[in-house]
Amino acid sequence: MRTMMHLAWLSKNPKARAVAERWNALSAEGKRNVVLEHLCDAAGLAHAELVATVACTGFELGIDISRMLGAIARQADDVARLHVR
Fold first, then answer.
1. Containing structural domain, residue 6
2. Higher per-residue confidence, 69 vs 43
3. What is the number of structural domains in the chain?
4. Residue 77's pLDDT band (boundaries 50, 70, 90)?
5. Alpha-carbon gap, residue 43 to 18, rounded angstroms
6. Which of 13, 42, 59, 69 is deepest in the core (most CB within 10 A)?
7. pTM of the full predicted structure?
8. What is the Cα Rg of the chain in Å?
């Protein structure tokens, strides 16, 4: 999550930067418990748009974000399984 927020902060997208600002304002415990979609909703940004923005920023900076994208995919699978129950 820290890498994602760092890249969001470095992006050119003002809404992605707003998500990063909200995350940075959280306490350590808040950062561990926050739901990313809630931060995105508060900034008026779709979760998928944040992921796309972060991916583009990483690519532009020459940063390997493959592990981060894999973690996002695993998190989405975990959330989907929770909703099925």
1. 2-84
2. 43
3. 1
4. low
5. 6
6. 13
7. 0.81
8. 13
